[in-house]
């Protein structure tokens, strides 16, 4: 679970230092946006490659190696002063995150199988918790007077301390032997693609809250700019809380119903946010999105590790790659829809897609 916390902390610690990097490079928003694409490209390229590395070396070693690289790269994000060096550093940062994501989920699938009970939501809950704590820790250290590079270096040390303290507890490659036997290349089956597309939609819905909720609240619901970020905060807190409690819900009702009801609740949340005449109710809509979506991805990732005839080290990288494409490319598509019509219409499209997930999902 602490490895998931490490990944969440590592990803979220980047957010508070983006303005410093932007100022040092002298970039405008457009230039920064293009540079940030390299981070996503690094993650997407490494996700399928990580599956190959896991089959050869086991997810335990890959997890350790990627976190070490992440810890080294984090301070460099505040030291690189040219577009080329910053671009290469961001690409490496994204590649490390993508590698950790696949490797830690491969570990989680095997641990869940080892315990023979649903625990995937708790893992992802720690990732979400790291996403909340990262900016708080970074912001607190910087506000207390520490130089940003020292603050981010402190985060790197914490990440290393956690991973080295927990390394012995990770399952060895011997426990993954059944999943690593892949003698020849084969195209992913329909079940793998289906799970990937479901993840694509859910990640699109989550990513759109990150990228567009503040704009929506400010421009459509007339929120003050200073508090427009409350939508994402409400969503994040709701998602974290529900993930930490999620395994109990999965035990009480079937994983299939978690997806069916969760997607429907998230869809309703988007519609509440759009059609509410009151600002506070729009915030409640974003809370519903977080509550509903919280445990869908953990269930889908767990299902990817249980597809008959397909090793988890093959299925999981494909599902994660397709899914994270939704978090990267999806919000851009939402921007196109918003430009062509309105952001409210774009949010309604997301609500419709979530209903597709609710209606179409079947247990794999």
UniProtKB/TrEMBL annotation:
<dbReference type="InterPro" id="IPR011701">
    <property type="entry name" value="MFS"/>
</dbReference>
<feature type="transmembrane region" description="Helical">
    <location>
        <begin position="187"/>
        <end position="205"/>
    </location>
</feature>
<feature type="domain" description="Major facilitator superfamily (MFS) profile">
    <location>
        <begin position="1"/>
        <end position="364"/>
    </location>
</feature>
<feature type="transmembrane region" description="Helical">
    <location>
        <begin position="225"/>
        <end position="246"/>
    </location>
</feature>
<protein>
    <submittedName>
        <fullName>Putative MFS family arabinose efflux permease</fullName>
    </submittedName>
</protein>
<feature type="transmembrane region" description="Helical">
    <location>
        <begin position="31"/>
        <end position="54"/>
    </location>
</feature>
<feature type="transmembrane region" description="Helical">
    <location>
        <begin position="86"/>
        <end position="104"/>
    </location>
</feature>
<feature type="transmembrane region" description="Helical">
    <location>
        <begin position="314"/>
        <end position="337"/>
    </location>
</feature>
<dbReference type="InterPro" id="IPR020846">
    <property type="entry name" value="MFS_dom"/>
</dbReference>
<dbReference type="Pfam" id="PF07690">
    <property type="entry name" value="MFS_1"/>
</dbReference>
<dbReference type="GO" id="GO:0022857">
    <property type="term" value="F:transmembrane transporter activity"/>
</dbReference>
<dbReference type="GO" id="GO:0016020">
    <property type="term" value="C:membrane"/>
</dbReference>
<feature type="transmembrane region" description="Helical">
    <location>
        <begin position="148"/>
        <end position="167"/>
    </location>
</feature>
<keyword id="KW-0812">Transmembrane</keyword>
<feature type="transmembrane region" description="Helical">
    <location>
        <begin position="125"/>
        <end position="142"/>
    </location>
</feature>
<feature type="transmembrane region" description="Helical">
    <location>
        <begin position="281"/>
        <end position="302"/>
    </location>
</feature>
<feature type="transmembrane region" description="Helical">
    <location>
        <begin position="343"/>
        <end position="361"/>
    </location>
</feature>
<keyword id="KW-0472">Membrane</keyword>
<feature type="transmembrane region" description="Helical">
    <location>
        <begin position="61"/>
        <end position="80"/>
    </location>
</feature>
<dbReference type="InterPro" id="IPR051788">
    <property type="entry name" value="MFS_Transporter"/>
</dbReference>
<dbReference type="InterPro" id="IPR036259">
    <property type="entry name" value="MFS_trans_sf"/>
</dbReference>
<keyword id="KW-1133">Transmembrane helix</keyword>
<feature type="transmembrane region" description="Helical">
    <location>
        <begin position="258"/>
        <end position="275"/>
    </location>
</feature>
């Amino acid at each position: 679970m602490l490895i998931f916390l490490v990944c969440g902390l590592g990803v979220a610690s980047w957010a508070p230092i983006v303005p410093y990097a932007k100022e040092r490079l002298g970039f405008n928003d457009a230039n920064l946006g293009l540079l940030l694409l390299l981070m996503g490209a690094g993650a997407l390229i490494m996700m399928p490659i990580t599956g190959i590395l896991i089959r050869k070396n086991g997810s335990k070693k890959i997890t350790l190696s990627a976190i070490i690289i992440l810890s080294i790269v984090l301070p460099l994000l505040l030291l690189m002063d040219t577009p080329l060096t910053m671009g290469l550093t961001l690409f490496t940062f994204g590649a490390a995150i993508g590698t950790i994501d696949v490797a830690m989920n491969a570990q989680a699938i095997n641990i869940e199988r080892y315990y023979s009970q649903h625990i995937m939501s708790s893992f992802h809950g720690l990732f979400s918790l790291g996403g909340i704590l990262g900016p708080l820790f970074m912001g607190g250290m910087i506000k207390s007077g520490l130089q940003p590079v020292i603050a981010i270096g402190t985060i790197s040390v914490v990440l290393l301390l956690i991973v080295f303290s927990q390394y012995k507890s990770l399952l060895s490659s011997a426990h993954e032997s059944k999943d690593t036997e892949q003698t020849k290349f084969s195209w992913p089956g329909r079940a793998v693609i289906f799970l990937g597309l479901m993840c694509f939609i859910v990640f699109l819905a989550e990513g759109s809250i990150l990228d567009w909720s503040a704009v929506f609240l400010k421009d459509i619901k007339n929120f003050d700019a200073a508090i427009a970020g409350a939508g994402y905060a409400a969503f994040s807190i709701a998602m974290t809380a529900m993930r930490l409690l999620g395994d109990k819900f999965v035990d009480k009702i079937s994983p299939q119903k978690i997806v069916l009801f969760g997607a429907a609740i998230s869809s309703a949340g988007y519609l509440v946010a759009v059609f509410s005449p009151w600002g506070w109710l729009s915030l409640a809509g974003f809370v519903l999105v977080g509550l509903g979506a919280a445990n869908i991805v953990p269930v889908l990732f767990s299902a990817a590790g249980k597809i008959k005839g397909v090793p988890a080290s093959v299925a999981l990288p494909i599902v994660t790659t397709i899914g994270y494409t939704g978090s990267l490319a999806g919000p851009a598509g939402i921007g196109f829809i918003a430009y062509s019509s309105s952001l409210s219409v774009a949010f309604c499209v997301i609500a419709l897609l979530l209903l597709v997930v609710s209606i179409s999902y079947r247990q794999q």
